[in-house]
Amino acid sequence: MDSRFRGNDKLNYMNQELKQIKKIYFVGIKGVAMTALAIVAKEMGKEVRGSDVQEEFPTDATLHRFKIAHVKNFSPEHITDDIDLVVYTGAHQGVNNIEVQTAIKKGISVLPHGKALGLFMQGKKGISVAGSHGKTTTSAMIAHVLIQAGHDPSFAIGCGSITSLQTPAHAGSGDYFVAEADEYVTDPTTDQTPRFLWQRPSVLVITNIDFDHPDVYADLEAVKEAFADFTKQIRPGGFVVINVDDAASTSLLRRIEAKKITFGKTATADFQLIRVNFTGGRTNFQVKINGQNESFALSVPGEHNALNAVAAIAVLLTLGLTIEQIRGGLASFVGTKRRFEKISEKGGKLLYDDYAHHPAEISATLAGARVWFPKRRIIAIFQPHTYSRTQALLKEFAASFGAADVVLLTEIYASAREKPILGISGRTLFNVTQKQKPSTVFTPGKADVLQYLKQNSRPNDLILTMGAGNIFTWVPDILRII
């Protein structure tokens, strides 16, 4: 490799050298976005390895299936001279991680994940799916339908796995690269650039805009500015698909110079969701397109997922797929890992797991569960994620459990990026929530949850674990005792 490459992280220059990169090392490889990019790199013919902590992740099985080697600690000894590129995540101290620092000292190029994803997307027609909620499912729908229609897209989606495809990522031979576009910052330790700004898509989807990540965004206006900046990244001739039901999203319309295609329930939407009903584990819905009503069906619950599908339909139809191709593709889409994922049915009890960690996501997930299972008692087990989010959205969290019959609240799962906040804990959230939902119970840890379920669960219950922490690791023990 040309010696000029080492130490140079400019994406345009690196794109010229990407084919020469043979060995890539991923620091924090078990993160869902990192695993997806590692798979893309491996399928491109790169030698891939990495490191992470010993804690169990939803991606462990995926890394094993793709035979991607990784060590379960961070050590400078892992950074050998034959590595061409080190990709790191904002977690695990970001650029200050010992392995990243070792690479820098050795003159090995290092890139944060956001930049690296932007690099791998170059040369393809990017389809970037952004939004505070729904971007994982929407991008997975688009990738799935493109695959079913024979387009062989590349894709990198942070979900552990798209159930129907048995992978969260692929390096395809087709023209498109579908990517989940995350608004979080590149590296909270050194670079506050929103991660999605390293992407230059031909198609941008904005599912919605909400206040989240209070550790890096001051308020909703700051989040909206990040999305406004992203709309400027659309390549000439490209287009944006945007949710006109969402006030924060529509406030950006006048600032978007690219072609705009709207979706939503609003009558003025170019792709209007006009009817949704739920029968036999199916979500049936109609979309008004150019004055014509078209029928579709999904095997995932909730009006929110019907809206995600409408966004996907808008993208795919505009790209030239037929209604029949889209209808058939969506009908065979069965969701992603940790998005209302069915774990088991045992003794008449259903067990599901979901990544919901924001009040809007909790409310939508529970509403979807309720319409699919109207006669079951829903026990929602929620593990709050991060002190900053819990503090900033305390009232919204407390009001988000309306569709549940019983709510079990655990202690907060803290991010490695933050310290505890005085006066903010799982019990704080419990105290506020119980005033609105008297059936709320404080179960701080796994043992408390298991004891409650052992004593109080009954046939016909739907038990739903929710959160972005490690609550998914409790599922085997829950399954054992119910």
Automatic annotation (TrEMBL):
GO molecular function list: ATP binding; UDP-N-acetylmuramate-L-alanine ligase activity
Matching InterPro entries: Mur-like_cat_sf, Mur_ligase_C, Mur_ligase_C_dom_sf, Mur_ligase_cen, Mur_ligase_N, MurCDEF_pg_biosynth, UDP-N-AcMur_Ala_ligase_MurC
Regions crossing the membrane: 24-41
Domain Mur ligase C-terminal per the UniProt entry, residue ranges: 338-469
Pathway recorded for this protein: Cell wall biogenesis; peptidoglycan biosynthesis
Gene3D superfamilies assigned: Mur ligase, C-terminal domain, Mur-like, catalytic domain, NAD(P)-binding Rossmann-like Domain
UniProt entry tagged with the keyword Ubl conjugation: no
Domain named Mur ligase N-terminal catalytic: residues: 23-124
Subcellular localization, as worded in the UniProt entry: Cytoplasm
Top-level taxon in the UniProt lineage: Bacteria
Function: Cell wall formation.
Xref: PANTHER family: UDP-N-ACETYLMURAMATE--L-ALANINE LIGASE, UDP-N-ACETYLMURAMATE--L-ALANINE LIGASE-RELATED
Designated name of the protein: UDP-N-acetylmuramate--L-alanine ligase
Species whose genome carries this gene: Candidatus Gottesmanbacteria bacterium GW2011_GWB1_43_11
Lineage of origin: Bacteria, Candidatus Gottesmaniibacteriota
